[in-house]
Amino acid sequence: MVKMLWYHSQESTASIPPGTCGLPLIGETLQFMASINSGKGFYDFVRIRGLRTNLFGETHVFVSSTESAKAILNNELGKFTKRYIRSIAELVGDQSILCASYQHHKMIRSHLANLFSTNSISMFIKQFDKLMVETLSGWEHGSTVVIHDEALKITCKAICKMLISLESGPELEMLQNEVAQVCEAMLAFPLRLPWTRFYKGLQARKRIINILEKAISERRRGIDTYHEDFLQHMLIEDDKASSDESPRLTDAEIKDNILTMIIAGQDTTASAITWMVKFLDENQEVLETLRNEQMHIAKKASPKSCLTLEDLGEMPYASKDESKPYSFLAFGMGGRTCLGMNMAKAMMLVFLHRFITTYRWKVTNSDSSTEKWALFSTLRSGCPVQVTRIPDDTHCH
Fold first, then answer.
1. Distances (CA, A) of 389 to 275, 288, 361, 393
2. Coiled-coil ranges per the record (predicted)?
């Protein structure tokens, strides 16, 4: 959830949108959360309660016209800046790209952009594909797996390998658990009491930052070996910047943005993959058409070869819907467009290809109810499926 702040001179109350502010402090937060996790969604909330409300202790205004959306997204005349609600901002950190002011955001974005270049994504696709093959080979024929859990594990492993070369062992498992606690706290009311989700999320954040501080310290002292990852790239940039006095990321900025990218890279993608599998199961004709397309790609490839960026471009049916950038802003728009947009799409296509050409499946719990306090729309069941391995003679890799 995003709150937009508009710096403006005092205007008459006639221009204030209709709505109520609910109870002191919490406002209409509980009603809003209940609505977005119901079948009706927040549109019903706005219809009943108006365009202005109080959420998480702050006044929020919903805008729906094309003109208003364009003004906000294009940030005309610098009237708007983006700020997440307090609980999210404290959990990802003040130096996160999600919380940065306009100029600060531009500086951080310029440093992170190289991570999402075409060349970087091409290399990442091969790494992620290897992880997918390894993961799927461990699923037993006829067993039941929970898609959301498996998608979280593999996306976390892939993102952590790319960012800090962490891909296995107890430290990765611990990091994944800590990140899960941070995510669970993001929509919690910001009370710093030991039994609250928000407090537990803050403690998890501290432990994650300690892991990152240790990694940075060891690499700077030469204790750790050289790695081809984002952190190493940032430290090399830091050394160059120190010599020519060009802008650089501080350690605090590096740590906050690594945490931000882990959260953004695993949670959103895992949720999307889960819904993708559920909807395909509910539309068998679409599933079979898609499987035929993916099998064709699999048969063309040499044995044990990895998927490439070019392979993903040969999946027209997997991306058959035309983009509607003015009505569906899944990745944002304008100067704040999601940096990892193409990487997220690539991860979903690789998962889809490997899963659909390796297994047939049946969803064993079709309940569509969602987690109440999840930052992203997440199936409460996690989408459990029973998998049946497709014989190897039907595809080549």
1. 21, 15, 9, 12
2. none
Phi first, then psi: what are they for 113, rounded to 5°? -60, -35
8 Å CB contact between 199 and 192: yes
SS3 label, residue 106: helix
CA angle in degrees (0–180, nearest 5) for 312-313-315? 70
Concatenating the DSSP letter of every residue in 20-83 gives ---BTTTBTHHHHHHHHTSSS-HHHHHHHHBSEEEETTEEEE---SHHHHHHHHHTGGG-EEEE
| pLDDT tens digits, one per residue of 32-64 | 777 766 666 667 777 776 677 787 777 777 777
Choices 3.40.50.720, 1.10.630.10, 2.60.120.200, 3.90.25.10: CATH for 108-394: 1.10.630.10
CA dist., res. 397 & res. 127, Å (int)? 16
**Domain-by-domain residue ranges, the chain?**
2-84, 108-394
Return the H-helix or E-strand segment holding 3: strand 2-6
